[in-house]
């Protein structure tokens, strides 16, 4: 399972990253809020661990950005801030857990494991089975190849969800442009690049194309 860790203190960040890796987690790191937002836009994570007082933009703004993408990824705030106003802002933005600095690594382990257990227990009602051993979780917004999560950008997730909403029917490039990009800032070639990228991360048969009809996912 993959975690994004936002922490500006280098030694603190390295220590936490190495500890989480020792527990078997894959950890991606960010030293400021802008880097964190960029990684969230381009990757899929099972958990976001965010410090609040970081350079560029705050952890609160990173949370706001993540939720604006409609991500259901659990978020744990790791901070020395204890003012009730800061706590309230965090929960209003969708924080799922608080960890007050300084903390014991055993407490970090417990809270991370509990969040993973709570949010990633299997529920077949949320799973759409796709050809060639792929499956899509509509709650977690994750595509898997067997048990392995496929790393997708937010636009790729949106495109897959749109095609899945029209199972059995082809969608034209014009329909895709309108639904995913609202017909802005994208041309036909740009849509084809996104489809090609998804096929590269999955298989050539994951998205089927038909001349004159468009694209559909092979469910």
From TrEMBL:
Domain OmpR/PhoB-type per the UniProt entry, residue ranges: 125-219
Positions where 4-aspartylphosphate occurs in the chain: 51
Keywords, alphabetical: DNA-binding, Phosphoprotein, Transcription, Transcription regulation, Two-component regulatory system
Family matches, as PROSITE patterns: OMPR_PHOB, RESPONSE_REGULATORY
Record bears the keyword Zinc-finger: no
GO biological process: regulation of DNA-templated transcription
Cellular component annotations (GO), alphabetically ordered: cytosol; protein-DNA complex
Family matches, as Pfam families: Response_reg, Trans_reg_C
Listed GO MF terms: phosphorelay response regulator activity; transcription cis-regulatory region binding
SMART domains tied to this protein: REC, Trans_reg_C
Entry-linked InterPro entries: CheY-like_superfamily, OmpR/PhoB-type_DNA-bd, Sig_transdc_resp-reg_C-effctor, Sig_transdc_resp-reg_receiver, WalR-like, WH-like_DNA-bd_sf
DNA-binding region(s), residue ranges: 125-219
Parts forming coiled coils: none
Stretches assigned to the Response regulatory domain: 2-116
UniProt superkingdom: Bacteria
Protein name, UniProt field: DNA-binding response regulator
Originating organism: Campylobacter geochelonis
């Amino acid at each position: 399972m993959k975690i994004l860790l936002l922490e500006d203190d280098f030694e603190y960040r390295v220590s936490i990253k190495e500890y989480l890796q020792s527990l078997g987690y894959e950890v991606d790191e960010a030293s400021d809020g802008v880097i964190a937002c960029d990684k969230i836009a381009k990757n899929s994570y099972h958990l976001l661990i965010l410090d609040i007082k970081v350079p560029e933009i705050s952890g609160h703004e990173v949370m706001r950005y993540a939720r604006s993408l409609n991500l259901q990824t659990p978020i744990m705030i790791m901070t020395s801030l204890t003012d009730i106003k800061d706590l309230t802002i965090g929960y209003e933005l969708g924080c799922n857990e608080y960890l007050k600095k300084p903390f014991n690594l055993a407490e970090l382990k417990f809270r991370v494991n509990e969040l993973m257990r709570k949010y990633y227990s299997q529920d077949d009602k949320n799973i759409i089975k796709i050809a060639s051993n792929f499956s899509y979780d509509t709650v977690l917004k994750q595509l898997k190849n067997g048990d392995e999560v496929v790393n997708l950008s937010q636009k790729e997730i949106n495109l897959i969800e749109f095609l899945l909403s029209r199972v059995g029917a082809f969608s034209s490039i014009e329909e895709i442009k309108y639904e995913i990009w609202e017909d802005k800032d994208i041309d036909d070639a740009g849509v084809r690049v996104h489809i090609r990228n998804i096929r590269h991360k999955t298989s050539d048969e994951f998205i089927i194309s038909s001349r004159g009809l468009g694209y559909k996912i092979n469910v």
